C-alpha cells in the first residue's frame, strides 16, 4: 500500500509558534490515534486534503476522521471552531460513529459529508442552517417546520429577475483591511435575537447535523465566504446561508436562507421531455433557457459567487419506449447511441452570485442572481472548477485551464494584473503540453496538479502560499518543487496550501 503524505505551506498562525509564514513545503506531522486503556497506540494515515478557511487547515484520515490544525483566532477575530489552536493536527470532535468522506471550509465555517450522505456544519451562526446541534436537546419539530416554511416564503416573496447590476441595494459590506471581511454584520432580526449575548457567544455554533429532505444523500460540499452548497447523489444542488449577491442562485437577493433549499441549476427531466414531445407534435418550443446536461456533477463556492458543472445521464434521455422515436430498430444501435452520449458528457459551466470583478465570466460586472451558462465556454467540456475570493478557474476535459475574475495579484495566471470578465485560456509556457488534472483556489492564489504529477501555483504570495521559497507574487504558473513524493491532490485555504502526495512506486 502506497504511503500518503501531506505537505503544507503559507500562513497557519497556530501551526507556527513564531507566527512566521512557511515559504516552502513542509511535511505535516501525522497525529497519534488509539491512545487509551487497552488500546494500542498507532498513527492516522492520510486519505485526502480539504484546504481550510482562514488560519486553519483540514485533512481526512483513512479511518474517516476530520483532522484539523492551525489557529482559530488571529488579531482578535474569531474565525471558526476548528478543533485546535496549536500546531499538532488532531481529530475534530465529531461523533465517533461517523466517517467523513468530504469537507470544505469558508471564511468562518466548515462543512463535512459522512459516508452515508449526511452533512455536519459549524462555525459562524449565520452560516449554519436549522438543524440539531450536537450535545443539545432535540428541537421542537413543529417549530422547526414553521421556521422552514417561513424561510421558503421569504425566498418566494423576494424572487426577482435573474440578473441585476451591482449597487447599493445589493447589501455588499465594506471591505476592511486587505481581506475584505471585518467583523460580520447580521440582519436586524438576528441582532435583536442575540442582543443579550455577551462576548463572542453569538459568533460560533457547535457542529450541527443539517436537516435535509428524506432520502437526500449528499456526496460533496463547497463553502464560500458565508454560504454553502451541497451536491446530492442524483445531481441536485442544495444551498443555504447568505445570498445577498445571488450566490445561492435563487433568483433574488435574499440575505439569509436558514434551511437548505434546492438551487434551480438546470431544467428537470420532465420539463425537457414535455418540450421534446411538444416539438414532435409540431408545437412551438416552450420559452426558457436550455442548459445542456440534466444533472450537476461539480460544485464550487467563491467568496460571494458560485459555480457548477453539468453532466448528462444517458439513461434519462433514452428508454425502451423511445427507441422507435429515435429511429433505432435494434439494441446494438441503441447501445451505440447511449455510448455516444456518455462520450459527449455535457461539461457546461454555470455561475451565479457577485460579479463585480467579472468572476461569473459573463462578460460584465453584473451580479447573476440565477445560474447562468458561461456561454463563451459552450462546446468545451469543463471537467472541474474552483473559485477564490474574487476569481474563478476551470479545467477542461482536455486539461486546459481557463480563468476569469479579479486579478489584482496575478491570481488568474495570465501574465498581467487586469481583471477578465470572460474566461481566458492560459497559454503560459510553463503549462505547455501539460494536462492539468486538479485545480484549487485560495483567497487570491491558485494551485494545480498536472497529469504527470507536477504542482504549479500563482497569484498572491504575501504569506508564502505559493510555496516558492519567497513572498513575491506571481502572475504566471510557477512550479513548486516536491521531492521524493508524487503529488495527487491540492487544496487551498485563504492564505495557505495543502498538498496530498504518495510515495513513488
UniProtKB/TrEMBL annotation:
Domain of life: Eukaryota
Compositionally skewed regions (Low complexity) per UniProt: 188-201
Polar residues composition-biased segments: 146-167
Stretches for region Disordered: 144-201
Keywords, alphabetical: Repeat
RCC repeats (start-end): 64-116, 235-312, 347-398, 399-452, 453-503
Pfam families in the cross-refs: RCC1, RCC1_2
Protein name from the UniProt record: Ultraviolet-B receptor UVR8
Amino acid at each position: 500500500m502506497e504511503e500518503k503524505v501531506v505537505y503544507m505551506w503559507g500562513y497557519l498562525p497556530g501551526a507556527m509558534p513564531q507566527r512566521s509564514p512557511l515559504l516552502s513545503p513542509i511535511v505535516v506531522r501525522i497525529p497519534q490515534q488509539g491512545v487509551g486503556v487497552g488500546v494500542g497506540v498507532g498513527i492516522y494515515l492520510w486519505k485526502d486534503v480539504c484546504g481550510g478557511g482562514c488560519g486553519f487547515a483540514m485533512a481526512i484520515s483513512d479511518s474517516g476522521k476530520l483532522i484539523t490544525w492551525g489557529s482559530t483566532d488571529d488579531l482578535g477575530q474569531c474565525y471558526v471552531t476548528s478543533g485546535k489552536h496549536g500546531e499538532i493536527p488532531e481529530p475534530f470532535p465529531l461523533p465517533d460513529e461517523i466517517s467523513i468522506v468530504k469537507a470544505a471550509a469558508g471564511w468562518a465555517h466548515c462543512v463535512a459529508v459522512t459516508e452515508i450522505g449526511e452533512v455536519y456544519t459549524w462555525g459562524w451562526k449565520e452560516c449554519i442552517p436549522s438543524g440539531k446541534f450536537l450535545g443539545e436537546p432535540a428541537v421542537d419539530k413543529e417549530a422547526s417546520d414553521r421556521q422552514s416554511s417561513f424561510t421558503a416564503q421569504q425566498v418566494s416573496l423576494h424572487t426577482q429577475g435573474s440578473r441585476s447590476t451591482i449597487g447599493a441595494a445589493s447589501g455588499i459590506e465594506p471591505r476592511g483591511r486587505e481581506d475584505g471581511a471585518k467583523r460580520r454584520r447580521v440582519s436586524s432580526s438576528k441582532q435583536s435575537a442575540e442582543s443579550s449575548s455577551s462576548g463572542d457567544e453569538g459568533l460560533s455554533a457547535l457542529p450541527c447535523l443539517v436537516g435535509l429532505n428524506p432520502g437526500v444523500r449528499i456526496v460533496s460540499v463547497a463553502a464560500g465566504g458565508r454560504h454553502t452548497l451541497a451536491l446530492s447523489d442524483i445531481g441536485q444542488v442544495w444551498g443555504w446561508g447568505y445570498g445577498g449577491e445571488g450566490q445561492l442562485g435563487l433568483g433574488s437577493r435574499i440575505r439569509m436562507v436558514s434551511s437548505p433549499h434546492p438551487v434551480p441549476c438546470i431544467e428537470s427531466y420532465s420539463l425537457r421531455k414535455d418540450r421534446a414531445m411538444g416539438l414532435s407534435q409540431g408545437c412551438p418550443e416552450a420559452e426558457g433557457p436550455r442548459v445542456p446536461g440534466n444533472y450537476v456533477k461539480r460544485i464550487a463556492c467563491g467568496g460571494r459567487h458560485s459555480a457548477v458543472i453539468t453532466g448528462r445521464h444517458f439513461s434519462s434521455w433514452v428508454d425502451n419506449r423511445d427507441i422507435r422515436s429515435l429511429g433505432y430498430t435494434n439494441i446494438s444501435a441503441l447501445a451505440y447511441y447511449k455510448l455516444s452520449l456518455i462520450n459527449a458528457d455535457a461539461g457546461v459551466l454555470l455561475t451565479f452570485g457577485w460579479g463585480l470583478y467579472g468572476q461569473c465570466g459573463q462578460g460584465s460586472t453584473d451580479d447573476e442572481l440565477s445560474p447562468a451558462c458561461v456561454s463563451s465556454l459552450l462546446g468545451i467540456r469543463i471537467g472541474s472548477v474552483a473559485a477564490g475570493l474574487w476569481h474563478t478557474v476551470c479545467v477542461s476535459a482536455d486539461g486546459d485551464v481557463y480563468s476569469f475574475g479579479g486579478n489584482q495579484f496575478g491570481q488568474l495566471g495570465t501574465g498581467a494584473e487586469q481583471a477578465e470578465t470572460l474566461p481566458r485560456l492560459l497559454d503560459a509556457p510553463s503549462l505547455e503540453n501539460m494536462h492539468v488534472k486538479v485545480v484549487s483556489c485560495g483567497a487570491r492564489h491558485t494551485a494545480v496538479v498536472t497529469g504527470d504529477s507536477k504542482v504549479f501555483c500563482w497569484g498572491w504570495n504575501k504569506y508564502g502560499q505559493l510555496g516558492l521559497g519567497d513572498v513575491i507574487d506571481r502572475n504566471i504558473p510557477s512550479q513548486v518543487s516536491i521531492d521524493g513524493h508524487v503529488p495527487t491532490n491540492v487544496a487551498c485555504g485563504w492564505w495557505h496550501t495543502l498538498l496530498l502526495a504518495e510515495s513513488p512506486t
